[in-house]
Amino acid sequence: MPNYYRPVVKVMLREGGQTMKPNLQSTESTLSFLMGGVIGKDSNLALAEELLAGNTIKDKIIEEFDFFRRYQLERGDHPRTTARNIIGEALQTESGDAAASEVINISYQDTDPVFAARVLSSITGYLEERFKELTLERVWQKKDFIEERLRVVSSEFKDAQNALAVFQERYGLLDI
Fold this sequence. Notes:
elongated, alpha+beta, single chain
């Protein structure tokens, strides 16, 4: 049996615009995620788990580390599915207990410790990108909503001003 190595990243998920910072054992990288506006105490945790379980990040890892060549998958029936399964089996996520539900441990197991650390570092980088994209999307949606509400309120305010002017003319009032 070969030796397996499993580097671990501890990512602290924060709500309400605070930061998410992982603690990557044996490296000194720091991720910063801008999060905010997500409803529910465990929503960031659930989102992180869903993103890691999905295919978007896995596909980026497959391309970056050339899993097809590394695991000789070109000859298989469904090489991308096989590569995703390899990552899915090697990638592990664990959330803390109820009191520490803001922390998610992400690990990647491989026989090559350097490769495992590089893959895990890339996974956390792609996770950071997806959180940023989703956060920016939420910010733009909120901005659009606020701008639309300002247009509506401005229009209603002008209508009220015009109605007041008509009322003043009709009844000869200068100042209510």
